[in-house]
Amino acid sequence: MSIACRTSLSERRVPELVDTPLLPPGFQVPASRQTHPSVRFRELLRTEPYLFGPGIYDPMGAQLAMYYGFRVVYFSGYSFAIGHVGSTDMDLYANVEIADAARRVVSALRKFQLVMAVGDPEKGTPPRHLEIPPVVVDMDAGYGNVFNVQRTTELYVDAGVAAAHLEDQVLPKRCGHIGGKALVPAEEMIGKLRMMRAVADDAGNPDFVIIARTDGLSAVDAPEPKRGLDLAIARALAYLDTGVPELIWCEFPTADREPVERFTEEVRRRFPEAGFAFNYSSSFKWFNDPAPLTFSELAELGVRFIFITLGGQHAAGLGLSRLLMAMAEREQDAYIELQREEWADGLDLPTRSHHFFSGVPYHHLVGELYGGSRLGGRYVEQLPDGKVV
Known about the structure:
This protein is of the alpha/beta class. It is built from 13 helices and 10 strands. It has 2 domains: 9-309, TIM Barrel (Alpha-Beta Barrel), CATH 3.20.20; 359-389, no CATH class.
């Protein structure tokens, strides 16, 4: 179920469908495929009470989020650091690395829409018409000075991402939940934000959404005398004064309600229409909170975009760790148990058939369409129970 609109896929409006030369005659895709992701993201921000983007770091995670109907996906820098270089979030990868990873995610989502639009004709699996979720990408502190920001923004815009967020830390930046953070002068951050806007406009994407993040609340060093929440509010107001950010994000060090309520209230006192982004951080032990903030409550405060940066990484770690621990004890029997669970009746798990999930039926049909005879023809798949289909 998509948290963003709280309706199941079956309850949603059937999208308008159009032809594409990348599908055989008789197969179609949602018309929104032809809408730029930035335009679509702005429209969703305008029309939905709030959007939730699961934190992912690779194409497969993004495709699963798309399959289950999420309206937007969040490409997490910290998750990418863990998944790409096996390290913490301290600028240990370059802008070209994360930009290329984001490009591959955007491309994978477009391909996945084609794959699902074919279904599996030989097995009677009907087409599934999935909307492509816009991708919001972490830009950290811009990976350098204003000219590094210029290059990074161009890479992101060319990659087809819908939006990016920039933070006001000195380099090398730190994860928002690691101590010892320091801020660049507000004027430097403002210059970087203005550069992002200028590059996106120059590249032909005036709808590219820019999110400004401040770590002022927990920074231990900043040019201003203010500290804590007062500094975070002052920084947010200064960034909104530029007219550049579509959303403001304050990184909160705890899950306490009061700072969130005061921050949004103070900012909206001066900018009544201000929208906010909120990291529903996995650093917070929400399960220990007797009354955790809900997404709906955040929306009432003006939060329009909610995400869990390390959500996908924690889920992948939990699932794989369970399998490895079980196989260390029970060897092949543990993997057989996994297959039995995957293929249980009533579950909608696209990855259990890697042929379907990776697009074997699509590749056969389109291979035949474009004369790739070695790619066409019937294929077989052996199911866990030994049956061949």
